[in-house]
Amino acid sequence: MLQTFASPISSLLDSRADGHSLPAGLYIRDDVFQADLDVFFRKHWICVGLDCDVPEPGDATVVDIGNSSLIILRDDDNQIRVVHNVCRHRGSRILNAGSTVISKLVCPYHQWTYELDGELTYAPHMGADFDKSCKSLRPVNFKSIGGLIYACLSDNPPEDIDRLEQVMTERLAPYDIRNAKVAHQTDVIEDGNWKLTIENNRECYHCSANHPELCVSFVDLDFGFDPEALSPEDLEEAREHEALYAERTRRWEADGFPSAAVEQLVGCATNFRTQRLIIAGAGESQTPDATAASSKLLGSITRKDLGDTHLWGHNSWNHFMGDHAIVSIVIPLSAGKTLVRTKWLVHKDAVEGVDYDLEKLTDVWVATTDQDSELVARAHAGALDPAYLPGPYSRFSETTLDKFATWYIERMRAHGY
């Protein structure tokens, strides 16, 4: 265990065995956490919010990533802006955490004042020769992809986000997420490393034993199974399910809804996976009875049988269904604490208590997130234990975890570790 803490990060990366979880130090060490922040949350594209977080001009919300603080806002021309929450005078924070409505950005320290496009317009007591034109708020590289806001804090953001943009712009168009509204939001702080949070989300090996609410609508076999572990009856059911997937995907795509799996998981900078999944049971939505929670469907959607368009990134997961969408954003707080911010989206005109029931809308993923939080805490406690040794991933149910660990090592090395 002492070697885990004494060895350089590069030695930990070198010691990772193919097909196995990461060495303990990569989950629990503070120096690794700081490296992760720099590599994966400053130099890669991360999901930070939604267009509909700021639906009207003057709406603003603050998102903190490590020591960086970002302001997402909508300006007077109805355009989304993302700027650093750092006054150009002496660096004071301009806005507090959370959401607000503003007409201008005014630094509370010395009242330097900026327009909503970031232009500095008022800097008292700086003299007549002071040039305000070069002191605008620093912009952040960002892209709005189908209403999801991705930001990169580097001046040289990875170019391969273009594939994510190409794939998801088409897939998300019918849901019109830009014009949805946030019906509910939760912030859950998990007692575990951010990579354990992502790993837990990328497999459903654990679902049947831990997520009874989710399994009403979610098919745990979708992400792999060991055919030798199933009874002949269960194996036949699994084969029938695979055949149903092929047929359902063919029909969806024939109707103009892209559905087949698209993966960019290794050998890349921007990590993502998307696929239209079958919803079990009543087949409409991820709710306690798998029926739609909102009678007013999203965007231009007119049918409830379009399944669940899921999207993974390295700090987010999303589920887009006919009646509502779920967007979860992962923000690391420390080596052993991770914020999971979940938003439930409905049609912008949907009225709570009339078009949707909030409890039905949120029950499944409130329960699932709480259950996952406990599982992540257990995994992190195990990584802290001197008895921990990296374990083998299932080659049937955890192939995406193996790819995530491989990608993690690749990107760390690409940035000099």
Short description, anyone?
This protein is α+β, with helices and mostly antiparallel strands and 417 residues long.
Description of the structure:
With 417 residues, the chain is α+β, with helices and mostly antiparallel strands. It has two domains: 46-144, Rieske [2Fe-2S] iron-sulphur domain (Rieske Iron-sulfur Protein), CATH 2.102.10; 173-414, Naphthalene 1,2-dioxygenase Alpha Subunit, Chain A, domain 1. It is built from ten helices and 17 strands. The strands form four sheets. It has a seven-stranded antiparallel sheet with strand order 11-17-16-15-14-13-12, with helices on both faces. The model has no long low-confidence stretch (mean pLDDT 95).
The main sheet comes to:
7 strands, antiparallel
Shape: globular
What is the CA-CA span between the terminal residues? 21 Å
Helix content: 25-40%
CATH class of the largest domain: Alpha Beta
How many domains comprise the coordinates? 2
- Looking across the biggest beta sheet, what order are the strands in? 11-17-16-15-14-13-12
Number of DSSP-assigned strands: 17
Uncertain ranges: none
Total helices: the number is 10
| CATH A-level architecture of the largest domain | Alpha-Beta Complex
CATH superfamily of the largest domain: Naphthalene 1,2-dioxygenase Alpha Subunit, Chain A, domain 1
How much is the radius of gyration in Å?
Answer: 23 Å
CATH fold topology of the largest domain: Naphthalene 1,2-dioxygenase Alpha Subunit, Chain A, domain 1
| Strand content range | 15-25%
Order of helices and strands: HHHHEEEEEEEEEEHEHHHEEEEEEHH
* Mean pLDDT value: 95
Structural class: alpha+beta
Organism: Rhizobium leucaenae
Keywords: 2Fe-2S, Iron, Iron-sulfur, Metal-binding, Oxidoreductase
Cofactor: Fe cation
InterPro entries: Rieske_2Fe-2S, Rieske_2Fe-2S_sf, Ring_hydroxy_dOase_asu_C_dom, Rng_hydr_dOase-A
